[in-house]
Amino acid sequence: MARAAVSKTAGREFEPLLPCHFYIVKTYTDMENKSKKSIMGRIRQFIADTAAEMRRCTWPGRQQLMESTVLVVVATCILALFVAGVDEVARIVIGLVTVGHL
């Protein structure tokens, strides 16, 4: 009796991808290199990376900042009025249900 092929792709001219062992080795190597640095070296590297990233950021101008601030304040006021209205309606409904009058 013959055995069936183990792979589901056997006989279909399918070439499997090569395993990605080099990624795992690279990851372990990076971890080893990081663990070899002193704590102060890692802190310095973190600060340098953070400063470099902050230089790449696009900061808003004064006009855009003012427009955004006004938008946030107006949206907050509208939301506060909505929540106050819902709270008042809930107070009235609960008063009518529990006590029978306002």
Q: Sketch the topology as an H/E string, one letter per element.
A: HHH
Radius of gyration: 32 Å
| Backbone shape | extended
Count of runs of 4 or more consecutive helical residues: 3
The SS-based structural class is mainly alpha
Mean pLDDT: 81
Topology at a glance:
Layout lengths: L20 H16 L2 H18 L5 H37 L4
What's this entry about, in short?
The chain is built from 3 helices and no strands.
Written overview of the protein:
This protein has helices spanning 21-36, 39-56, 62-98. The protein is 70% helix and 0% strand. With 102 residues, the protein is mainly alpha-helical. The longest helix has 37 residues, at 62-98. The chain starts with 20 loop residues before the first helix and ends with a helix.
List its traits.
extended, 0% strand, single chain, 102 residues, mainly alpha, 2 domains
